């Protein structure tokens, strides 16, 4: 409880933006404040720490593309 300081706290919730036509695999962890742009692919089990560009990949690439 000592860590809670309102807007001065280091534990701040930030929005996660997921645009249209994205594939996000099972068991992914997406950090607060991340933006996943249109058509992005996130492999199962990945940890997303930075923004993903439009039609970009995070993790392994699927063999059908």
Given the structure, what is the number of helices? 0
Question: What is the arithmetic mean of pLDDT?
Answer: 84
* Helical fraction: under 10%
Strand numbers in spatial order across the main sheet: 2-5-7
Radius of gyration: 15 Å
Give the strand content: 15-25%
The count of β-strands is 7
**What is the first-to-last residue Cα distance?**
49 Å
Order of helices and strands: EEEEEEE
* Classification by helices and strands: mainly beta
Shape: elongated
Q: Mind describing the biggest β-sheet?
A: 3 strands, parallel
**Poorly predicted parts:** none
Quick description:
This protein is mainly beta and 65 residues long. It has strands at 17-18, 23-24, 29-30, 35-36, 41-42, 47-48, 57-58. It is elongated.
Mind explaining what this structure looks like?
With 65 residues, the protein is mainly beta. It has a domain at 20-59. It has no helices and 7 strands. The protein has strands at residues 17-18, 23-24, 29-30, 35-36, 41-42, 47-48, 57-58. A 3-stranded parallel β-sheet has the order 2-5-7, with no helix packed on it. Strands 1-4 form a two-stranded parallel ribbon. The relative contact order is 0.22.
Q: Secondary-structure map with pairings?
A:
Layout: E1 17-18, E2 23-24, E3 29-30, E4 35-36, E5 41-42, E6 47-48, E7 57-58
Parallel strand pairs: 1-4, 2-5, 3-6, 5-7
């Amino acid at each position: 409880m000592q860590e809670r300081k309102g807007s001065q706290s280091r534990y701040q919730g930030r929005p996660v933006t997921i645009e249209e036509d994205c594939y996000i695999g099972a068991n992914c962890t997406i950090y607060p404040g991340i933006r996943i742009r249109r058509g992005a692919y996130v492999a199962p089990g990945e940890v997303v720490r930075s923004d993903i560009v439009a039609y970009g990949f995070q993790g392994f690439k699927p063999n059908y593309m």
